[in-house]
Amino acid sequence: MANNELSKYSGGLIQLIYQKGGNLSIPGDEILSLECIVAGTTFIKNLKDIESKLEKDQHLDLIREPDNKHDNFAVAIYNTQGEKLGYIPREKNEMPARLMDAGKWFYGKIINKTWEGNWLKIDIEIYLKE
């Protein structure tokens, strides 16, 4: 088999997959880039009010804060009502921050939320949107 034959499209193979009840998943324009918690939720003043609006799979906006005095790579996390939930944790924020500075766009999704004492733990996934 010549090297160039590996990249040839075979419509018959795709048709066979579907005829046999298979599913072919082709990556879209969103890439799961990071899984983390939302850092800093304990600093939210109206946390209980905001928490009641948060649901699984809810979209989250990510806003770069390059002038943040505590963290040069700060990326803030907001719900769709424009309320700040916190930040991408410092130990995980450099890659998305640098890509955002280069013009890339990220968003988040809530995976889970649980109360642990007075702390609201919000697990999220962060996606790169191409």
Concise overview:
With 130 residues, this protein is α+β, with helices and mostly antiparallel strands. The chain is 17% helix and 35% strand.
Task: Please give a structural write-up.
It is a single chain. With 130 residues, the protein is an alpha+beta fold. The chain has a single domain, classed as Alpha-Beta Plaits. 17% of the residues lie in helices and 35% in strands. It has 3 helices and 6 strands. The chain has helices at residues 11-19, 47-51, 94-101; strands at 30-37, 59-64, 75-78, 84-87, 105-116, 119-129. A 6-stranded antiparallel beta sheet has the order 1-6-5-2-3-4. The longest helix is centred in the first third of the chain and has 9 residues, at 11-19.
Radius of gyration from the CA trace? 20 Å
What's the architecture, going by CATH? 2-Layer Sandwich
CATH class: Alpha Beta
Low-confidence spans: 1-10
Choose one word for the global shape. Answer: globular
Q: Helix coverage percent of residues?
A: 10-25%
Broad structural category: alpha+beta
Mean pLDDT: 85
Largest sheet descriptor? 6 strands, antiparallel
Tally of individual helices: 3
Numbering strands along the chain, what is their spatial order in the largest sheet? Answer: 1-6-5-2-3-4
Spell the H/E element sequence: HEHEEEHEE
DSSP strand tally: 6
- Tally of individual domains: 1
Give the end-to-end Cα distance, rounded to a whole number of Å.
34 Å
- CATH topology-level fold name: Alpha-Beta Plaits
Could you tell me the strand content as a percent range? 25-35%
